[in-house]
Amino acid sequence: MTPRDERRYPKLLLRVPQVPDDAWLSQPEAARQLGIVLIRIGVLIACGHLAPAADSAGRAGVTITSVQAENAWRDSATRRAKALRLLKDTIRFF
């Protein structure tokens, strides 16, 4: 089994942009910065709140700017905004 930091996005399923290494974060590091569990990163990517990206080696991750934007939103969003976002994401999922 491949370690999480070494995983890559499947090329046939997703077209993920390759970004410079200084604009990329691994998914575990993004989870640590946001203070959430790793599986939640996949949910945020699927819902469009984080931008998937590959580094120069092709490893799966997200862009630093999308993590910063998500962190800023989490810090400033009201409870109502968070509840509305959860509702929209749930509806979009189904």
TrEMBL record:
Keyword DNA-binding carried by entry: yes
Domain of life of the organism encoding this protein: Bacteria
Alphabetic keyword roster: DNA-binding
GO molecular function, one term: DNA binding
Protein name, per record: DNA-binding protein
Source organism per UniProt: Streptomyces poriferorum
